[in-house]
Design a protein that fits this description.
With 126 residues, the chain is α+β, with helices and mostly antiparallel strands. It has a single domain, classed as Aspartate Aminotransferase, domain 1 (Alpha-Beta Complex). 33% of the residues lie in helices and 21% in strands. The protein is built from 3 helices and 5 strands; from the N terminus they run ααβββββα.
Length: 126
Amino acid sequence: MVDNERKIIEVDQFILGLPEDTQNIAKTLREIILDSSPVLVEEYKWSMPNYSYKGLVCYLQTAKKHVNLGFQKGNELVDKDINNLLQGSGKNMRHIKITKIEEIQSEAFRSLIQAAIALNEGENND
């Protein structure tokens, strides 16, 4: 269970302003992110929720019909993405596009978030 003191009001307000379907996805993803590690810090910048530890780890980017769970160093997570969930072709960032709550894979997402934290810690988990 997530410690509510780690949640910030700006993200609460952001999520409350979303359409209901998107709001439910964003709330669920927020719980998974914060539950992934007690070291993650929730922030609201660039008009979206961001989660950091020793640098940016992941973010939630919303659109009318979907939510992206994005990773700043997603290109370095591809080898950890055993379910081939990561999308995108940018230099660094990758994301997982979620259009319905049933698409959320808690354990797979948690594993990628923890791998992203490890990258920021400079650990090599190979």
